[in-house]
Amino acid sequence: MKNALVKTDNQLIINRRKRRAIKRTIISLVLLVSVTITLCLKLTYFNIAYISVINNHTINSDEIVKLSKINKGINIFYLNFKSVQTNLQSNPYILSADISRKLPNTIVISIKEREAVFYSKRDNKYLIIDKNGIVLEEKDDISQMKLTNLQGFDTKEVKIGEVIPSQDKRKIENISLITELISNNSSGIDITSIDLSNDLNLLAYSNNMCIKLGNGNIKDKLNKALNVIVTSNLKDQKGYIDVSYEGNPVIFTEK
């Protein structure tokens, strides 16, 4: 009986010691974490000294840094990433921005840009538009940009950073479709203009050659027309190719 009591007492002592050891370990860890956090927030070693911008092609890195409103010299752990992203996305060219810390003192900004595909005219200015119909900027000159003229929209009420106004959502959808076709065009024939004025009669232009697409099955129709231009050597001709219906295309060229 006495042995049993001794064993029980010993086990209780061991358990108390274990609990005390665990408690001391937890307290030590809490103190260590607290000291580490305090040092990280107070030491100038963690103040932002460098800002690296990657994956930007259109917007200058200095402009992105300025737009981010990140101040060098502040503690790297105090930086509000959400605020920086909001600042950056005020530029219509920036689709998204990923912000990360590279310890001890560098912020990395990874940019995903919208791509300029089309242009429309408003007065004497050029509106630059992406594949989703978003107006990226207004420029005086686009001679150094390879863009497709986009027709069929009223540009009077256009606002930078917003989708080009249209009461017909199919027009915006067609912009994305045409972008895909232009990107995948390997014929060597440039699509210089697109007219989306009439959803039932979409028109594409390669310089002075009009391609009548009609509606529906636009991809196959455009490929057929481009193939006709190549095989019939119509690249520099003026006229039209009608592929808006099934059957052989109708070709007309001016003499």
From TrEMBL:
Pfam families: FtsQ_DivIB_C (PF03799), POTRA_1 (PF08478)
Keyword set includes Cytoplasm: no
Subcellular location(s) per record: Membrane
Chain ranges passing through the membrane: 26-46
Keyword annotations from UniProtKB, A to Z: Cell cycle, Cell division, Cell membrane, Membrane, Transmembrane, Transmembrane helix
Major site of localization recorded for this protein: membrane
Ranges for domain POTRA: 46-114
Family annotation (InterPro entries): Cell_div_FtsQ/DivIB_C (IPR005548), FtsQ_DivIB (IPR050487), POTRA (IPR034746), POTRA_FtsQ_type (IPR013685)
Protein name in the entry: FtsQ-type POTRA domain-containing protein
Organism of origin: Clostridium rhizosphaerae
